[in-house]
Amino acid sequence: MSMNSFGHLFRVTTWGESHGPALGATVDGCPPGVEITPEMIQQWLDKRKPGQNKYTTQRREADEVKILSGTFEGVTTGTPIQLMIENTDQRSKDYGDIKDKFRPGHADITYFQKYGIRDYRGGGRSSARETASRVAAGGLAREAIKAIAPNVQITGYMVQMGPHKINRDAFDWDQIEQNPFWVPDAQAATDWATYLDGLRKSGSSVGAIIEITARNVPAGIGAPVYGKLDTDLAAAMMSINAVKGVEIGEGMSAAMLTGELNADEIFMGNDGQPAYTSNHSGGILGGISTGQDIVVRFAVKPTSSILTTRKTITKSGEETEIITKGRHDPCVGIRAVPVGEAMMACVILDHLLLHRGQIGQNRGVIGPQS
Amino acid sequence: MSMNSFGHLFRVTTWGESHGPALGATVDGCPPGVEITPEMIQQWLDKRKPGQNKYTTQRREADEVKILSGTFEGVTTGTPIQLMIENTDQRSKDYGDIKDKFRPGHADITYFQKYGIRDYRGGGRSSARETASRVAAGGLAREAIKAIAPNVQITGYMVQMGPHKINRDAFDWDQIEQNPFWVPDAQAATDWATYLDGLRKSGSSVGAIIEITARNVPAGIGAPVYGKLDTDLAAAMMSINAVKGVEIGEGMSAAMLTGELNADEIFMGNDGQPAYTSNHSGGILGGISTGQDIVVRFAVKPTSSILTTRKTITKSGEETEIITKGRHDPCVGIRAVPVGEAMMACVILDHLLLHRGQIGQNRGVIGPQS
Amino acid sequence: MSMNSFGHLFRVTTWGESHGPALGATVDGCPPGVEITPEMIQQWLDKRKPGQNKYTTQRREADEVKILSGTFEGVTTGTPIQLMIENTDQRSKDYGDIKDKFRPGHADITYFQKYGIRDYRGGGRSSARETASRVAAGGLAREAIKAIAPNVQITGYMVQMGPHKINRDAFDWDQIEQNPFWVPDAQAATDWATYLDGLRKSGSSVGAIIEITARNVPAGIGAPVYGKLDTDLAAAMMSINAVKGVEIGEGMSAAMLTGELNADEIFMGNDGQPAYTSNHSGGILGGISTGQDIVVRFAVKPTSSILTTRKTITKSGEETEIITKGRHDPCVGIRAVPVGEAMMACVILDHLLLHRGQIGQNRGVIGPQS
Amino acid sequence: MSMNSFGHLFRVTTWGESHGPALGATVDGCPPGVEITPEMIQQWLDKRKPGQNKYTTQRREADEVKILSGTFEGVTTGTPIQLMIENTDQRSKDYGDIKDKFRPGHADITYFQKYGIRDYRGGGRSSARETASRVAAGGLAREAIKAIAPNVQITGYMVQMGPHKINRDAFDWDQIEQNPFWVPDAQAATDWATYLDGLRKSGSSVGAIIEITARNVPAGIGAPVYGKLDTDLAAAMMSINAVKGVEIGEGMSAAMLTGELNADEIFMGNDGQPAYTSNHSGGILGGISTGQDIVVRFAVKPTSSILTTRKTITKSGEETEIITKGRHDPCVGIRAVPVGEAMMACVILDHLLLHRGQIGQNRGVIGPQS
């Protein structure tokens, strides 16, 4: 049992604090024979890296990943892979004035109540900085997936920021890389920029909804009852800092549907495989993939670091007020996009590996000969 | 690793199919010295039991639980507790005409694609019948919680059925036990009865949202980063049949909040403990309890068993149509209430036990002396 | 985490006490498509069953196994398999006079010190009766192994009883089934019968060494560093009641060898696979199988239930004496043979499954083309 | 599930190869509030460090440990602790001539058969170098134990080298630190030096038996049935490179005892706690500690790296011969002493933590009031 680990066969343990010398991911169970270089992982870390535009925290981190173990001549050996990222811009003096005050909406009070340790330097393990380790592990998972199911494509994007939602009718995959919000809707990108500029200048923050889609995942991966693909995805996404809700397919809106509307009718596709008239299920039935797009959404709350004075208490129980002046993200949802992608990659790989182990040739084949 | 188990220290493995001789829960890690009788567990199974009113499936099951191990003279011994429920009303002939057809929106197609086995008798492990095992384990968890944190109260209720939501201003804890929907709003109970009668008569079904609240959970339980209290709750709820979304506190609506609105301000309560002006966090910050109410919601989709013809395929890949005539629930959300309560009880107990093991006397105390 | 479970992918949880209504094994992770009937499992339970000859306890148990879940039409479905054995001859009055006294060499004192519960009825979970559950799970494992690696043969036998060792030069596989001691040496069988008769009549008991050999296990299964095949075997065997030592290949005698003597030289066998001039390694190098026979030995201590008076204390701390008059085995090593076989079967299956999951086609092939 | 991890609550994952840039241990579950400095860990690494005398490999490694995470101001915070040791003397050219040949008695052939990767640089994960990570984790475990059970003392020593055993009658705890073999017998130390000098000069190697004793472990820690203290110790010791056998208390010799001789009789000690007339059990009954010394022994085989020519094969299946000229230990048992101590420390700490979590105040008290 490890509280800082996730995955069944592809097992990732993240370690490291926001203001320590380094952080990273210890990955056990990566199959041997996967070609991997630091550059392959670095591209995803660069996507998550702070300070790339005015909408994310101005903390400057190189976020350079080093592979300390588990590879030989650029190929995984089947042994644990240590991915380390050294912290370079810790600047802990920024945090000095919150040494004794708890921040409303922040985990510093509950960490203190649990551990009895007040690590005031930027949140320790509860900092969003921990997600760099996840993104590194996710980059590795993407390469391992390629070796097993090369057509799988995992893409994240924002679908809501504050009250502003994307226009689903204008959904355009090609737009995602064209704007700082990873939003698949050109008009939304423009509108959101204006909105977020205002928030940023006023020292406020706002929440968001991110959607992650995995395309071309083979049918038949996943497992009952507590190792369901959607159970693992829910845990993976909810474990990300600031996430307060997770949805698969219809999500919370499934409550409003009747059985007639919700049923994705089945026919035979051109490729001789079962196909569906709709995807209310989000690509998962009974915890097992249908072969349709796997669609997960999660909501992140706004960061607690804002320039408005809030009421709080000190360690010694005195009532006081606080303003957080550190470098922070007006909308943490932006940088949550590559984190959500990484978690999806890890879960999909894990279930592809489980499928190999538990099923082998026993899969049911739908068609004339069966 | 077990795909049919959940929990870290309080470890529950459910087993059994809808149409086999029995099903149950193997529980390891229950503390010794907990007084437990079959009757204490039975009350919760009776709450979940089908056929109690016209709104749930007319399958008749006694759902009588037997304790086969782990107790001596009515007290737990610290060894595994086997809770068994024999199936009595299997009536598998009902299911004969769906032997070769897959039901749209049902897991039978993905189970076949994964396992290569077509157990057409009522869904096997994917049947809602599996949740009886959870409810039994949850009943045990409730008794063990009493021995550690006697003030904890876990209550589930419906907050939405189809398009109909409760009126939060009329929220009344005492109403919950007064109607077949476990709804805390007398007017909603009346309205929903009419609505569901119509659905039932037309052979349709509808989704729902259930909320589970745990009161008086001590501050400081939970764990970073993948063993967070909310991560475990998300997994626990998403693992329930038909669940498509899970929310903690504000949930998906957190996306719409600004940092100012979301921050639950802190002051010192009358009991000398930290208190909060609001509970947007749902009682959890950084994966650790704040001492406020823990609030979780989940959405269930409508059952796929409806009387309207839907398009589907057979095992041999032929396109056809299907109507499901079995005994089913027009709104599975009703019977999901005690299941959600059981999952909450198991997760809370698990983290209370973890807290004892990992923290001991090291907890941080907020107040003058600290 | 479950203290009553073992295995990684083939996960067995045993439950039940010596004097409760039933005991059994909850097995998760058995591959689908394995043909299994109660009879296939029963044969191994019959081998372990007490009261079959004068050398084992006269407790009479039918030890009839029921399969409560996880199969459909005689084939495993991939879901948890519940194997239940009802207790029929509990006769707990036998144990009445040891209600307050602890038995020297028995776990009743440590169980009490750990759990604070004094279940005086025959040892509870620490009773050898728990091993019936293991044997049931092992019987299932044997059938699953057949579906993956049909040539594997697992055979257990005694190699020492008290001071009497077998003559390795007279080793005869065919003798094993011909005598009540499962000893591969006809002369030893005769000698031991005389020896044990004497012990039995004097109300004494004695220890033994059991060897389990697995033949035709493919090379390349196992795993570093804490999931080694020998690590898992050591844990599996040490977990059996009364076991005090475990050896792989040369075992403790490896201490006396020089590097020259210990090195199993390698050549190419007639089948084009690597072959070895000797098997000091016991078929395992670096935790991974070599393809040679896997050879494990374990020592069991004598049972503490003897007719000689021993000094002990009561629950209230008074010094006293005890004689144990219950029905017991003069040499528990005899009935440990099928238990050791069962544990070997479970571990081998588990690693065959892990191999499928983690390695796939990546195995190294030794030969001209590689 | 992680093949490179051990422990239930105190969970250690080791990573890194003999010839990579670094290796280390990721430790999750260490309690908060433990004072720890690199120096506290370094002392144990120094004990294991190669090249300290002529009896161990002449590889020169600083083996300097860095604490990269999990502490704040010299105290553990409850979050994962990353212990990293950089490799400095890799000198991989030494290994060039064994690039294509497999070493008899070495894991290189089975690693290749499992993973399909031939990392010829000094054994990769199967190298004894991996044990440095264990020793680092063990050093941390020792400090955490002090915070919970300050009287626990863990001491390892050699009891046999090749055919030479210690004289138990001359056992002297104070001798252990006085000789390069950690042997508690001055005469043996002298004799063994002569013996090993001879072996070393002839380029041979020999096995050994190491004993680890834990004194003052409280009664009542451990767990049935697969999480027994002895089960965990057997796994922990068998997972160490080159170990072929593990014994608890009487170990394999238990086979030769009668029930009368094996029973450790019980009386009341001067401290009002149960005491025993002997310790055949090695301090463990039914997997739970008795409060007596916990005594574990393990045998290591001789290293396969010897100067005598042995027959072997190449990757392409050609038969050939091999001599291993690298820097190696004539008796790896010497450096196995601190490794065994480390594993004992990790297991004891883990069960102390489990005890806190699962038992609390429920322990049985033996004495007048109970």
From TrEMBL, chains A, B, C, D:
Enzyme Commission number: 4.2.3.5
GO terms under biological process: amino acid biosynthetic process; aromatic amino acid family biosynthetic process; chorismate biosynthetic process
Gene of this entry: aroC
Binding sites annotated in the UniProt record for FMN: 125-127, 241-242, 286, 301-305, 327
Family: Belongs to the chorismate synthase family.
Entry's Gene Ontology molecular function annotations: chorismate synthase activity; FMN binding
Keywords per UniProt: Amino-acid biosynthesis, Aromatic amino acid biosynthesis, FAD, Flavoprotein, FMN, Lyase, NADP
Signal peptide annotation: none
Pathway annotation from the record: Metabolic intermediate biosynthesis; chorismate biosynthesis; chorismate from D-erythrose 4-phosphate and phosphoenolpyruvate: step 7/7
Subunit structure: Homotetramer.
Catalytic activity as recorded in UniProt: 5-O-(1-carboxyvinyl)-3-phosphoshikimate = chorismate + phosphate
NADP keyword on record: yes
Protein name, entry field: Chorismate synthase
NCBIfam families in the cross-refs: aroC, PRK05382.1
Top-level taxonomic group: Bacteria
InterPro entries documented for this protein: Chorismate_synth (IPR000453), Chorismate_synth_AroC_sf (IPR035904), Chorismate_synthase_CS (IPR020541)
